[in-house]
Amino acid sequence: MRLSRAFLPTLKETPAEAQIASHRLMLRAGLVRQTSAGIYAWLPAGLRVLRKVEQIVREEQDRAGAQEILMPTIQPAELWRESGRYDDYGKEMLRIKDRHERDMLYGPTNEEMVTDIFKGFAKSYRDLPRNLYHIQWKFRDEVRPRFGVMRGREFLMKDAYSFDLTKEGAEHSYRQMFVAYLRTFARMGLKAIPMRADTGPIGGNLSHEFIILAETGESQVFVSQDLLDYDVLADTPDYLGDLSPIVNFWTSHYAATEEMHDEAAWAQVPEAKRVSARGIEVGHIFFFGTKYSAPLGLSVQGPDGKPVAPEMGSYGIGISRLVGAIIEASHDEAGIIWPDAVAPFSAAILNLKPGDAGCDALCEQLYAALSPEAVYDDREERAGVKFNDADLSGHPWQAVVGPRGAAAGRVELKRRATGERAELSLEDAVARIKGA
Amino acid sequence: MRLSRAFLPTLKETPAEAQIASHRLMLRAGLVRQTSAGIYAWLPAGLRVLRKVEQIVREEQDRAGAQEILMPTIQPAELWRESGRYDDYGKEMLRIKDRHERDMLYGPTNEEMVTDIFKGFAKSYRDLPRNLYHIQWKFRDEVRPRFGVMRGREFLMKDAYSFDLTKEGAEHSYRQMFVAYLRTFARMGLKAIPMRADTGPIGGNLSHEFIILAETGESQVFVSQDLLDYDVLADTPDYLGDLSPIVNFWTSHYAATEEMHDEAAWAQVPEAKRVSARGIEVGHIFFFGTKYSAPLGLSVQGPDGKPVAPEMGSYGIGISRLVGAIIEASHDEAGIIWPDAVAPFSAAILNLKPGDAGCDALCEQLYAALSPEAVYDDREERAGVKFNDADLSGHPWQAVVGPRGAAAGRVELKRRATGERAELSLEDAVARIKGA
User: Which residues belong to any copy of the Aminoacyl-transfer RNA synthetases class-II family profile domain (chains A, B) (predicted)?
Assistant: First the structure.
């Protein structure tokens, strides 16, 4: 996109309401704009990040055998009465009456609805196992929304739901999601560590949170360096095969949130490998058995002809939250440092002298070669403004073109993460950017 | 997807509540499932169609220079009080109180919100023109929702909003969307005819509906055969150049809905070219000037230093509605006939004898060559069931593999739309399917 025609606004001032780095940077870099307390509109650059995060999540869900559906945002209250959660959920649930005075709600999660949908079709054990996921906006009416998209009221979430005939089957489904989550976060340039979680009001006895480390994290975590060093993407998992070895590796090394921390076990970790840091939760997986299938009347005919309530699990990733979490994990004083896989654009092309024939020609060539993954700063602005905006926006590469370089056919290429610079020909610069 | 493991359920019985073909077929083919009155969950096959429709809309919006953003579903009531529409809108607007008793609403459209967002950034005439669009779920609390996704309460819509310094500029933006809409519908295999529309309560003086012809259409339309014969995709429009010739061609031939029909002008159309048919509205474009920019206080500094309220237009396409409309325009007694560009899968592979080594091997080869754009019917079912499900589901191609054909390395390829059949080698069958 050409900045002269794009809607990619940046702010010079830091908005007063933003308390944490990601919130501040998302507003200043023009990724989002608040429209009500805890509710945001996504501007073009922010939406590009959101879509890239979403697409990585989708690809890894599909790879693990989950199937995408899309449930609506508005749900009937009756379903939640059947499960018993309608009264339990409290004021976080946005309750609505439609024009016929029927009780509706804006879904904060979808266990009830997916169980009811599946019930409409599944008749026999041959219809199992299945794992259905959707990526949809949800609403939790937080009493004090804050931290931007990290704790908003309207948020985008991927939630998957598995249905199995037996507990053993459900454990395999759980491991599939466990491994898919490791890959999902690794592809975004994140080190997400699975940590055993309290199962809380949702119930069940198998649950992990996936937590990334960031100085500004919301909670204290304790983790073995061995887990941080492990290269997740080196494995190519066979999702139909036995995934226990991968899960066992992760669960046999120490990793715990403050609530689940065990000082005695921690003392067993060699001192040099003990990492105590701040963490941000980006995913959560649960096994909860027949907690919803039983009350909602989902049952299939088993191999012996008798009805069986499927064993279920649910698996969430906060997609809009991840955009903030990635920034918390990757920024500096000057702005955002996007990991390559989720950057809104791979490169910013900075024309230091628009109107100079050499600069314009070289920039146009670069732009043609890199579009649509480049922003072209063709504005009539001082070089300093362009440098600052590019650093703030955090594109992995900056291709800087001034009159002297242009005359020699050279581009100055800067890597945002390291500050490294190199003077390259157009072809080499394009190759470096595309190879990243 | 392998049907033995997929969540692609079909229904044998026609659901009683469905009055029109698309609603009936969408339920029977397992594209959607109703979760409340006028609210639907999209199952995997339906979601694939929805996403393909959405992606065509997106590509043509981008090509025309519009920029994608994403506004939230929940809006503050104050914005609608500023524009004066909060009280006008009536019971179709889903009104909500949050936990702090603030008045919110589920957006039925976004003129107010986009104007407010743009106001936060646009300062000067240099920030114009811009066209911002989003693709988001909306809610209209219809008193009697019916016709499935054609008239649902929660629906997916693309809405674009243009901002220009002058009326002439706004007319150019209007023409950009006019031409983009022609291309969008043509790419989906639809003949959508722009018809001059009453501007209604939204105001303004330039407005067209885009209407497709279907026997089961909701209203009567009158159109010249010349428009139906025109090949939209033969043109490659230059969106920055003068689009008047294209728009003039369309507006100089007769096309009108019943409300705007003019018998005297219709009598001027040569009798052989008069087509009177039923139509379904799939898009709507408006110019409305400063109707929202003025009351909401959006103004930019003009070239002469004086403040100017931008001239605006809005441009909608009902994306979820289109899925139903396409089926209304393209089905037969046996089921759906998907146009190639929006089909959930290009082909169904029908294994007539699972367990037969030759059939299995040939089907696996076909599936590997066509995945992920094929469904593989590997179920233990009678051939008749498989034929019926494939016809119902409407995949453009059916690749039928029986023991005799498999032994000779031959596939029977059927084109769903015409019923034409050919016996081909695997390579030729794959090439035919991919070339469609």
Answer: 38-339
